[in-house]
Write a structure and sequence with these properties.
The chain has one domain: Porin (Beta Barrel), CATH 2.40.160.40. It is mainly beta. The protein is built from 1 helix and 16 strands.
Length: 275
């Protein structure tokens, strides 16, 4: 009997590992998730992002490279190219390069379920201006710190995260308002599948964004800062080590200072490949 119990424990452990594995590669579309790469893993991602607020429109294509230093610690770089239409003028050029690292400090595995938490640190450098397009980039170094929690099972997903962005001051004395982002996400896999078959997870996110008022030479700028909330449906489709995730942010609440244009929509699609 003791021998049979041992066999059942071993089988249960293998099932937990096997059932949890497909969930490890999933993260929210707009929010922050705790996912990190395996040791020595490489992820290449192309992210296309667009947003519109009144007459202003911005498009961005970002190439992201991530490397797994350990099974719980990843490091990466973002290289964006931006196009912005503002006041009837179109501008295009390289955006600011960003360096980031994510560390998963807690993980709990059980049969078919994985819970985890991670911390993120990201630095957006002042490099885009060297490309001759200062109007596209603020001319300051910014930093972001984030905390993420995730629950991932064969059928259900839950995430929650908070991020704080500290924006630097540029040579013109402009200090853009710091930003707090809060995200709550739920997901469902309608049909559980194996690793070798295509897999689909549907997501619904609630994304909140609070921005402080900007200052120039210590004076608050009236038409800056405020709060916006978005409902964001999306999809995460994977096949082995390739993934596509896409979603759209629909504004549901807006309280902006002054005469700022409210967001009409934001959308994102990302193509990921793991080596």
């Amino acid at each position: 009997m003791q021998k049979h119990r041992t066999h059942f424990r071993i089988l249960g452990g293998l099932l937990a590992m096997g059932l949890a594995y497909p969930a490890m590669a999933h993260d929210p579309i707009f929010g922050l998730g705790p996912h990190v790469l395996y040791k020595g893993g490489v992820e290449v991602a192309l992210e296309l992002h667009t947003e519109k607020a009144g007459s202003e429109r911005e498009n961005e294509a970002t190439l992201e490279l991530t490397y797994g230093l350990t099974g719980d610690w990843s490091f990466g770089v973002d290289m964006p190219y931006r196009n912005k239409r503002q006041s009837g003028i179109n501008r295009s050029g390289m955006g600011d390069l960003s360096l980031f690292t994510k560390y998963r400090f807690w993980r709990k595995d059980s049969l078919g379920v994985q819970e985890s938490a991670a911390v993120l640190l990201k630095v957006k450098t002042d490099t885009g201006r060297s490309g001759g397009t200062p109007a596209l980039n603020p001319g300051a170094t910014d930093s972001i710190v984030g905390l993420a929690w995730g629950y991932e099972s064969r059928k259900w997903y839950r995430w929650a995260s908070i991020r704080y962005r500290y924006n630097g001051k540029n040579a013109q004395g402009l200090k853009r308002g710091n930003v707090v982002k809060l995200d709550f996400v739920g997901g469902i896999r309608p049909t559980p599948t194996g690793y070798l078959k295509p897999d689909t997870v549907w997501m619904l996110e609630l994304n909140g964004e609070y921005r402080q008022q900007s200052k120039q030479y210590g004076t608050r700028l009236a038409n800056t800062g405020g709060t916006e909330w978005f409902i964001s449906p999306g999809i995460f489709w994977t096949k082995r080590n390739f993934a596509i995730k896409a979603g759209v942010q629909i504004p549901v609440s807006s309280s902006l200072n002054g005469s700022q244009a409210r967001s009409d929509y934001r959308a994102k699609i990302t193509f990921e490949y793991h080596y």
